[in-house]
Fold:
Amino acid sequence: MTPHPTATPAYPDIKPPVTSIGLIGWIRANLFNSWFNSILTLLVLAGLFKTVPPMVKWAFIDSLWTSTSAECHADGGACWSIITANIRFILFGFYPPDQQWRPLSAMILLVVMLLITRNRRWWHRALAWAWVAALTAMWLLMRGGFIGLQFVESTQWGGMPLTLILAIFGLTAAYPLGVVLALGRQSRMPAIKSLCVIYIELIRGVPLISLLFMSSVIFPLFLPEGITVNKIIRAQAAIILFTAAYIAEVVRGGLQAIPKGQFEAADSLGLNYFQTMRLVVLPQALKIVIPPTVSILISAFKDTSLVVIIALYDILKTTQSTLSNPKWMGFSTEAYIFLAAVYFLCCFFMSNWSRQLEKDLST
Amino acid sequence: MDQQTPTTPTEPQEKISFWHDPDRLAIFYQALALTIVVLVGYYLFSNTLTNLERQNIATGFGFFGKEAAFEIGESLISYSAADTYFRALAVGVLNTLKVAFAGIILTVILGTFVGIARLSSNWLVSRLAAVYTEVLQDIPVLLQLFFWYAIFYEVLPSPRQALNPVAGVFMSNRGLVVGVPETHPAHAWMLAAFAAGCLAVWLLRRWAVHRQEETGRIFPVFWSAVAILLVLPALAWVAGGAPTAMNVPELQGFNFEGGINISPEFSALLLGLVLYTAAFVAEIVRAGIQSVSHGQTEAAMSLGLRPGKVLQLVILPQALRVIIPPLTSQMLNLTKNSSLAVAIGYPDFVSVANTTINQTGQAIEGIALIMAVYLFFSLTTSVFMNWYNKKVKLVER
Amino acid sequence: MKGRITVLAVALLAVCMLLPAGLFAGETLDAVKKKGVVTVGVNGGLFGFGQPDETGEWKGLDVDTGRAIATAVFGDPTKVKFVPLTAVQRFTALQSGEIDVLCRNATRTLTRDTQLGLNFVTVNYYDGQAFMVAKKLGVKSAKELSGATVCVLPGTTTEQNAADFFRTNDMKWKPVVIEQTAELAKTFFAGRCDCLTSDASQLAGTRAVAPNPADYIILPEVISKEPLAPAVRHGDDQWRDIVDYAVLAMINAEELGITSANVDEMLKSGNPVIQRFLGVTEGNGAALGLDEKFAYNIVKQVGNYGEVFERNVGVNTPLGLERGLNALWTDGGLMYSPPFK
Structure:
């Protein structure tokens, strides 16, 4: 016998037990939903309790922000003064101090461009030109030598602008090369295909540092006597050659995702190879590979730190140079944490962007 | 015009201009590309030769046989400053392999743990795992290495105040020193027994698979394997006279003598590489597990498989298919990143080659060696992983 | 069609642009004058010899030597560009022409003078390798260092000397090699090594920056000779002479008692030696292909050797080095200049 449905209204709706809703319910469901999870939660909490308060005390409560090095040595907390006292050299390296508004405004220009680009509503052809203009402007601003701006040689560029330039110019210049290599690798011509495969696999098989060594130590021997290329340009070239091989692989992925029908349709329209690629295949393929390209930008940005090993003054090297000053020796933890935060913020911005793009473009 | 002779099919082909004949164009382009590459290559090569000759720089690998005259901090084979450059470079290669091998194993373990932790239903655990992957992925590995190395030598005490958590284990800024059994002939026998055990397990597995296919009965291969691999070496140990003497480290003069020493440089390099790469592996593992639809688990369960078997027979084979290719490239990345050892003083191949370049002045040979060695590592790893990938690939009907 | 032709044209042009590039090689002095600066390779991380200070300005004995060379050529110590180099890079940078002169505490050795295609000029610092240990170890002599862990810069003569020393004395040791001087010093102070070996000047410098300098002693043994000298490329004798006499001018000025403070008065000196040196009596400059006032300019704008020494590494600096071997020959040192005539 089934109970009569009219019987239920006699009782009001019973609220769920307090232990399954609200904060307590959330805690039960997410932290203590089984004995194993309960133990895990307790262990993690204990670990956090052990480590976080002393760290906070060290980093914020006992820390010194604008003191001299002597006061720092006397104090037990973090010495952030090493950053505040040397921030100019860390950020701009050897750039003439009275001219440092120039790298600063170049960097601001770059950040503004990145913020604009982040919003997909602005993606027009005009934006591409704006980027070209902005990069040129950055370069000119850094270099000077016109309308009263003092000429600053690229060997004097250092710190953050150098890091950014190596990464962004590296990616920009590597992109076309990478696309050409990817097309070459997909080509039906055996000689071209094997040249591209050899290049890509060779570069991907060796560490970046060996290319940097090559650019800094033996590349000069490749050139005729009396011809020299500036150290920064050589390192930049190594980064470009390196990044191009990785871009080629990413673009290849995009090319492979294009259905065969697209090629056949283009062929039947009578388009030749270059027209097919330019008008049909690449626009689709490159759109697919935008998110992984941002990941390559992130690794290029991180990889620029390796130029330390060939004595270029990027932001890591300027920081180390500060650390080797007798006054500030021994505060490496603070300096490295500061740098880690800088790198993290930049990369986090980009990786979030890449994730958002992936979502937007997956339609 | 009443002539209606149709044009022969060959005629229009002859009229195709050079620029519209894909076959001839292809040959032309390839010839052009090859010519340019050869010309540029020759140009650089001849410049280099002129420069080397003009500056009177020695060439060739003749230095291999000369005395290296520099000491190396840690080595898997015996080495002294009186040995040749060749042996010094071999020490470097072995040191690179040592850190890469240990690094890959630890990375896979840690990465799998963190990847699973990210999928945990425990909010705290999954958040922590997420923070870990996000933060460590976004900090350059070189910076992490500097950081860990600084921690190792600045925080740990000097050898005379070494931490001694367990008997025979000492931690100081000279590294971790661990007591090991005194060398004894029985050890060789134990190794041989272990190898024999491996062979026996392999045969046993083949037999078990065969029997299951024939009769449907399942043989407990895993537990028998554990038993064989433990019992055989133990028997060899007893048969060899059951040596128990330990080589315990002792503080003598400046440093610990005896035992094995894991240097701070090695530890910092290993730690930095593992923590960095594991962040990437965790993402890969997570994606791999998520790629197997829940329906698969339910289907396996409804077939009556136990959870362990579900993981082993249904989820893992499918997840591995997604995991292996990106995992391979992470392993290669780890190996290549181990070249950053040069920055924190671990004598890996790049570091030894660097010293060699500096002493012989032969930069081209040195850098060519570095590239060749890493290329060899990369190619062999990808060949092996491709083979493995083929093995775990699902064969679709 | 057009596209292809453009591609072809660009490719060919690229090849053509590369090919004739070899024709521009020239004498170093002409090249330097054309550029308007002397490019000097320096250490970059060695306090007292070559390191940028907080404002990014280069400081050090080697740096000032570079400035003296620039002054000799242009009469202006600012017409110089410093290129920081690692130990591995330094010689190729010079060989390839990336730098015009190397002032990077490089030891003059037979191999380097011959096989590396270099020419060393007059020594600007006489050094020797020694060991530094923490006092609390109670070590009195380098002979007691058996079994020690030793911090050392890789790929330098230092590393070889240390290996030779321990081999000759049949002692065991373990090197910890780190490329950067500062990084190496930090590791040593943290106790990673029992002892630090390097040129005595560097050890003094390192000790000066220790958390507590009195905790460390430099052992008495000096195990090597390290004549540190600027180097130029093989084959350009004129440039070699210029660099040589730029260094010697500083030494000679000290011998003659000329300083940056009194050099203007000295112009009026009746002493023919001084007149010749400062270019009042002409001849020296023309012989080198330089301005007649080159020595005057060096002393006026950079200083004599003694001044440069005291300013960068002398007793009143954190390094606190005595003149020792680097005193004038008249004071028992090795600094000696041929006559400027």
